[in-house]
Amino acid sequence: MPGVHDVSVVGLPDDRLGETVAAFVVAARGWATADDERDDDDGNKSGGDGDKTADAAGTLTKAAVRDWVRARLAAHLVPKHVFWLPDLPKTASGKIQKFKLREAAAADGDNGR
User: Fold this and answer.
1) DSSP state of 76
2) First-to-last CA distance in the chain?
3) Which of 24, 69, 92, 103 is the most exposed place for a label (fewest CB within 10 A)?
4) What pLDDT was estimated at residue 54?
5) In sequence order, which residues have a C-beta less than 8 Å from that of residue 94 and are 6 or more positions away?
6) DSSP strand E in 15-85: where?
7) Under DSSP, is residue 25 helix (H, G, I), strand (E, B) or coil?
8) Residue 70 CB burial class (10 angstroms; 0-12, 13-18, ≥19)
9) What is the mean pLDDT of residues 25-38?
10) Does position 94 have pLDDT exceeding 60, yes or no?
């Protein structure tokens, strides 16, 4: 996806579904990130053509990330939560520390919606 440097996806606990998809996105250099005006409560709503990956100013939005995924993958894989990070936490050998992503999501509450 244009404007995305790196991404990692983890499952987060959910009372209704057991687990939901959360995407942790690192924007590419020169790209800004923004929270959306709309609230995709379940992350699986129809719509979006997948072609609007960012606005004209080079700003990634959570809706654009969801739309891009929705256009390419099954509906249950669309992230309910999207979090912006400056960099992904990694081990000395370069593996992504997904447990730290889950901890960050728990500390951030509903800000990934």
Assistant:
1) G
2) 20
3) 92
4) 53
5) none
6) 18-27, 32-34, 59-61, 81-84
7) strand
8) buried
9) 85
10) yes
What DSSP designation does 89 have?
Answer: -
* CA angle (82, 83, 85) in 5-degree steps: 145
The CATH code that applies to domain 4-112 is 3.30.300.30
Q: What are phi and psi of 101, to 5 degrees?
A: -65, -45
Phi, psi of 7 (to 5 degrees): -155, 145
Please give the structure tokens belonging to residue 108: 């951030």
pLDDT in tens, 36-88: 754 444 444 444 444 455 555 689 999 999 999 999 999 999 999 999 999 99
Alpha helix (H) residue ranges in 1-113: 62-72, 98-108
Pairing of strands 18-27, 32-34: unpaired
Domain residues of the chain, as ranges? Answer: 4-112
Residue type for position 52: K
Summary mean pLDDT of the chain: 84
Give residues with Cβ within 8 angstroms of 56, minimum separation 6: none
